[in-house]
TrEMBL record:
Enzyme nomenclature, EC number: 2.7.7.41
GO MF entries: nucleotidyltransferase activity
Organism annotation: Lactobacillus nasalidis
Name under which the protein is recorded: Phosphatidate cytidylyltransferase
Membrane topology value: Multi-pass membrane protein
Amino acid sequence: MKQRVITAVVALLIFIPVLIAGGMWIDWLAAFLAAVGISEVFLMKKQILVSVDFTLAALATLTWTVPNSFFGFLPPNWSKWGVFYALVMLLLTWTVLSKNKTTFDDIGVYVLSSLYIGTGFHYLAAIRNSSPAHGLWRLLFAFVVVWTTDTAAYMVGRKIGKHKLWPVISPNKTWEGSIGAVIIAVIVTAIYVNLAPVGGNKTSLIIASFFLSIVGQMGDLVESAYKRFYGVKDSGKILPGHGGILDRFDSTLFVLPIVALIFGI
């Protein structure tokens, strides 16, 4: 417990100032988190990081993570889609050059992971930097939904949970905890949007929090599913007592792109 508390305090001391500062600071943070995230996928698959396939997968992930303005040097008819597609073609070519030591199935995992991780962390920075007046509060809106859902699901499930939600994937989660988490998340979000200058229609945001809470829980279950598939307890060990980056951002990676859509980012 002591280790978990120390890690949480240190992480927050770094994370919160970067959120407040925004700009290039959160762009760099998003890129760092995305790079660690894709490395955790490789480690769960028991693949080495000093390799051609990791280099290409990391570049593909960062292609989605970095701001769109980063690609201003490209010809007018090019975009990050073009860069990403070129990297996918190189990954597929590597299956031939490596004589199938890196397989087609491996490439499928890397490409899907780069989209999932890169897009999620892209919107971590994009939402924050979307508006000087509202950006920080909109990002915190996403975190309020996720953190409230996670905390309430644990507390309600522990107190009154009797019916397992998805025992094959996550044996500790219950239907009571899941439903209670959605209700509490909506209540807390309603309070938040009436106090914080998030912009947008408050009623719509409260309604959206209902669906975002469910989506966040699905993100948590998806991460539990692939950890079970790879036979690991945590996605990584970068946060002592808390696991890896994907462990901490599993729900957030699902929620952030939808929050960006809600605010037209």
